[in-house]
Amino acid sequence: MYKYLLCWRYLRTRYIALASIISVMLGVATMIVVNSVMAGFSDKMRERLHGILADVVVEAHSIDGFYDWKEVMARIKEAAGDEVVAMAPTMETFGLLKFSIGDETITRQVQLIGVRPEDRANTGDFGKFLFGEKPDEKIPASFAVPDALRARTPAGDLLEDLPKDDPFYKEVHNQLKDQSPEFGMIVGYAIATMHRAGTKSDDFLIPQGKKVGIVYPKASKMPEPGYDNYTVVGYFKSGMSEYDSTHVYVPLERFQKMRLLVDPQGRGAVNQIQVKLKKGANLDDVALKIQMALERLRPMHFRVLTWEQKQGPLLSAVTIEQNILNMLLFFIIAVAGFGILAIFSMIVVEKTRDIGVMKALGASTAGVRAIFLGYGLLLGAVGSGVGMAGGLLFVHNINWIEDQLSWILGHKVFDDTIYYFNEIPTLVEPMTVVGVVGGALFIAAMASVWPAQRAAKLHPVRALRFE
Question: Domain ranges in the chain?
Fold first, then answer.
């Protein structure tokens, strides 16, 4: 019983121990907050990356693709069986986007993606990422050009008030076709907008209804550029700048025709097939089955990847950053451990005579050792407990704290225009919290082992004679 009483007494009276408690507390709280925010960002990023890509992606090695994609889809269905929920043929290649601002022509390098919008929406979150100009204005997964957008052009505005029997009606109607092409295009939000410093809204460089052109490689023995015009009908806004600043979606059949990828039988080529599987399916196993089936169809022509394999470098980079950050932050707790070691060493020296008295009165070696081990564990428990509570409380109120800091500093601490998140994403993982608290307790206990062993080995007579 005396061991517990002495531990409690030292905790209440040795105020120097507060330094160790505060160090442990800050280390634990910081690690919980950082891990929760990093896990939240990682979870959001994985969710959006998965939404952009289907569960499994079948790719051709050539950007010109393959014409027998219907047979390929049949082989995929045969290999994966009931695991397949939906598939979407896709033509993806590099290109240039050209649009005008006043008298200036702007050219941007982009990734051109020919899709059937309904099929692409069925294989992922493509439909959820489609927006109009107004905040949170959802648009359907379609390339159809509404009359309301055509009316934005000079010819469309004039045509509204012009009767059909007017002699100029046909001429104005032809101008409308030139000013507003019949094929629609969905442009990455970051391509179409510009954010001015000090403003909350984005300025549209490419408003809905604007005519834009694309330059792309034609499929020929000697690659040559092709050109086509489209009308912007909406924007792709996934929240991932890498994709919002490069992706441009156009109708698949039109893109196949303009790239000269339609064979004499009328089949258009594709170079990707997006495959959505049932929830809970083992993606790696299904991808392997599909790869083997397609190898039998055409050896060394297809590459089958899961969405995680497709985004492997990015996901690995986030994991590595999180691990390195954890290592650096764990040094805070290690510093607290050295503080406990130093404090306990001082206490052993200071209380040498008291230790001798206790041992002379019958305290065992194990009992004296337990006093210091228990004291170290108690310091770690108090620091870890307060740090855990403080860290979880900080995470729970992190967006309110961010608002207050932004008000005090006069600028946004977390700029949602960069990440497209309405608030700071957080995800508290119980096992991470347990690991952090457990690690802090372990360091505190280990730091007290050497002083405890030193105190336990003191001889009663020599300790009593200590000056």
Answer: 2-46+314-464, 54-145+181-310
